[in-house]
Amino acid sequence: MYSRVGVETDVFSASPHRLVSMLFDGAFDAMAQARGAIQTGNTELKNRSLSRAVRILDEGLKAALNLEAGNLAIDLRDLYAYICMRLTHANLHGDMAAIEEAQNLLQPVREAWNAIGDKAAA
């Protein structure tokens, strides 16, 4: 309960940049939970975690893109769609390699986004 209140407080007071960072964090947390669930054979947690990661990517990160801003936004939309497809595959087949691929594809985007925030804050 206390952690939920903390997250809600963070969301309400966060800048738009921080909100996107939180989406990345949530997606990575969900993928890590799914990997652990696959290792322990917890199908329910795997399903819930991967569904959450897909929702974050699709309804959060992809939906927030301004596609009129240019090719980068379009490329990110396509990358997020591909990652969603791989995570759906991982959910259907318990494929740990597909989750690792998704993490490896998303990590540079996350790092670049955080670097932008670090420079803006300085």
Automatic annotation (TrEMBL):
* Major site of localization recorded for this protein: cytoplasm
Write out the GO biological process terms: bacterial-type flagellum assembly; bacterial-type flagellum-dependent cell motility
Keyword Amino-acid biosynthesis tagged: no
UniProt KW keywords: Bacterial flagellum biogenesis, Cell projection, Chaperone, Cilium, Cytoplasm, Flagellum
Show the InterPro entries listed in the entry. FliS (IPR003713), FliS_sf (IPR036584)
Q: Does the keyword DNA repair apply?
A: no
Subcellular location per the Swiss-Prot or TrEMBL entry: Cytoplasm, Cytosol
Query: What cellular component GO annotations does this protein have?
Result: cytosol
Q: Give the superkingdom in one word.
A: Bacteria
Transmembrane portions of the chain: none
Signal peptide positions are none
Tell me which CDD domains the record gives: FliS
Which PANTHER family does this chain map to? FLAGELLAR SECRETION CHAPERONE FLIS (PTHR34773)
Similarity-based family: Belongs to the FliS family.
- Protein known as: Flagellar export chaperone FliS
> Which species is this UniProt entry from?
Paucibacter sediminis
Point out the gene that encodes the protein: fliS
